[in-house]
Amino acid sequence: MYPLGMTRPLAVAVAVAALAAPSAAHAASLTAQPAKACYRAGETVHFIGAGFTPSNQVNLVRDGVLVSQFPADQTGRFDASVRVLMAQGSQRRTYTATDSANQGLSASAAVKVSAVSVDLSPRNGLASRRFRVRARGFTTGRTLWAHVIHKRSKRLIKVGRLRGACHVLRTRHRLLTRNARLGAHRIQFDTYRRYRRDRKVQRNFRITIVQGGR
User: Fold this and answer.
1) According to the model, what pLDDT value does residue 37 have?
2) Domain match, 124 and 190 both
3) Final residue before a domain boundary, out of 98, 114, 130
């Protein structure tokens, strides 16, 4: 048996270390659901928090700006629904949840948000002109289609493959034929082969062909 003077300090040191170590069961956490590499503008993201003070308010902050307060339930969990918006481009954002009663209970989740957009250039000129098409945020599919509608006629064009987490495309494409009829042509961009005017995710353009504008 070791002398008492040698074993007691060791035992006390171990006990103190055990008391000072944080419990993993009480660590706060925050996750974004559904788990996606990129969210398009207009989508609702559920930030699921756990490990917070039961029945207490939790502050949800985005890049330093308060989004809202949400109550944790009796187990310290919450589900904060946030509709993400983005006017143009894409951006990585960090959301942080902090317990209002205990500032030490805090957790963060990073998400990437993209606008849903199609840019055409040039916006005027001959009907037979090849347009530069730049698209992003069409997370409803992997192929971008153009539905060209003129009065009762409809024509489907495969614009190209959407790539990357935020489904981005840059290409050149002829959207109107050389013998396009005079009048207004509406072009609806979406990710579906079958045309429906009420698609939730779409972008529209109107090109008018006049006499001598072919």
Assistant:
1) 95
2) yes
3) 114
